Amino acid sequence: MLHIGVLVVPPIQLLDIGPIDLFAMATQDYFRVCKLPQPLIDMAIPTSELAITYISASGPNTTVPTTARLGLAINAGLIDPAVAPGKLDILMIPGPPPGLKPDEEELAFVRGHVDAGVDLLTICSGVFVAGFAGVLDGKRATGTDGVEDLLKNYFPEVKWERKRYVNDGKIWTSGKCVEVRLVSNPDRP
Q: How many CB atoms lie within 10 A of CB 112?
């Protein structure tokens, strides 16, 4: 089972949640609908082996805003046992507005997953969430163009690189509009 948790710190940028769709489309059922060759279908994720959980401090059965003014349904809270540290394979953090500091509970959630060895994937300004959680200190990372000075000011212990995406161990960070490239990379988490 591949369990991906998407931590939503509202309002998130709708574009930044798009990469999760690539994971959803990498399933055998989707490949069959696309009439792809059987060897490719065999390489895809068995549909029953993919779980995507949208997580927010607001808790399950809530709707949170996006910058595009579209509500996003949440199906787990930060204390849900199904998304406890170590229960996810990948924790994806789409971008909230740059510089928005999440609540301590959200930051502890991120730290818990990183400490448990979960792959962390930040999209665009989602790097701020990881930065505020302290999980990037001493690591190489990148962020969205135009806020480099803000990132360096907030998080001076991070080794900032001006790249489309950076992988440092189990932490993957990306800049703007590279989300699709990042998750389609064969070396991705």
A: 16
